[in-house]
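Thread amino acids onto this structure.
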């Protein structure tokens, strides 16, 4: 069986990290190396990691240059044929690695295939909300953000098993990209010659909660659009006409997205009221919501 390198970057995810560690360590896969790189957490993360340290290939807790830098460090330490990273609030599905190797016949030697399994999306308590499978098969699919990626076609990062040597040859993750490093990384792999294969096998578990970066919708979208533009311009698989059309499509989406987010923020915004007025009304409502409980408490005391 091919060796698999797993990397977990972590920072102040003590609430979830034990589930992450156990999901990897209990895979039952015979040839796995596991690197945990904590960015100097000040919650209970280090205490949890230490309990599992005898079964880790390497772990450290120290200040770093961010999530992407931590992942790159782990990948460079790895000796696996394939690799994946699992953030410290996500998990691997039970027997995910063995099921992929046995049912998909992953080769011992290096390949150029990204194996993408199904991804379970769960809430903060662990209840399954839905299962997702992407539909990106090419660089063009990837950069078609409005019609593919944001139309239910996105690649689920915790569900991807990629060739480690190809990832390192492509330069790893962009350490200055803190919001859509995975999106940009898939593009780099596709430009380097990777092929995508969806396995239909449960692989990753993505946890939805308020503190994750994906909640920063405007920043994430701006970062993704910038990465897409760079990928289109650097990819030589597009004709000049296609490249021009995609770039125009991305720019149209860039201009329209903030307004769409604003209109989706509530009934007053959807009604078309000026943003300044809506903001004042919302501020007044929040102030009243704070004061009313106090008033009733005083009245009843």
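Threaded sequence (301 positions):
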């Amino acid at each position: 069986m091919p060796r698999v390198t797993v990397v977990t970057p972590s920072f102040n995810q003590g609430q979830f990290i034990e589930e992450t560690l156990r999901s990897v360590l209990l895979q039952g896969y015979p040839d796995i190396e596991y690197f945990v790189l904590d960015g100097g957490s000040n919650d209970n993360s280090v205490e949890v990691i230490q309990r599992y340290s005898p079964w880790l290939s390497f772990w450290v807790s120290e200040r770093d240059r961010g999530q992407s830098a931590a992942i790159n460090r782990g990948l460079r330490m790895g000796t696996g044929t394939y690799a994946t990273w699992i953030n410290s609030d996500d998990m691997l599905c039970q027997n995910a690695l063995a099921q992929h190797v046995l049912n998909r016949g992953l080769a011992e030697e290096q390949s150029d295939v990204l194996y993408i399994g199904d991804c379970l999306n769960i809430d903060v308590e662990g209840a399954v909300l839905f299962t997702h499978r992407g539909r990106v098969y090419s660089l063009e699919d990837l950069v078609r953000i409005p019609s593919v990626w944001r139309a239910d076609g996105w690649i689920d990062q915790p569900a991807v098993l990629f060739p480690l040597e190809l990832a390192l040859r492509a330069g790893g993750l962009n350490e200055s990209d803190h919001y859509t490093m995975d999106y940009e990384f898939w593009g780099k792999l596709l430009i380097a010659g990777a092929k995508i294969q969806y396995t239909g096998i449960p692989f990753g578990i993505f946890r939805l909660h308020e503190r994750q970066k994906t909640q920063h919708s405007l920043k994430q979208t701006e970062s993704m659009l910038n990465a897409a533009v760079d990928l289109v311009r650097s990819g030589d698989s597009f004709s000049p006409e296609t490249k021009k059309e995609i770039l125009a499509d991305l720019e149209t989406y860039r201009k329209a997205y903030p307004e769409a987010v604003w209109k989706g923020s509530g009934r007053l915004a959807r009604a078309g009221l000026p943003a300044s007025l809506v903001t004042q009304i919302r501020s007044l409502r929040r102030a009243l919501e704070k004061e009313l409980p106090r008033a009733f408490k005083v009245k009843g005391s």
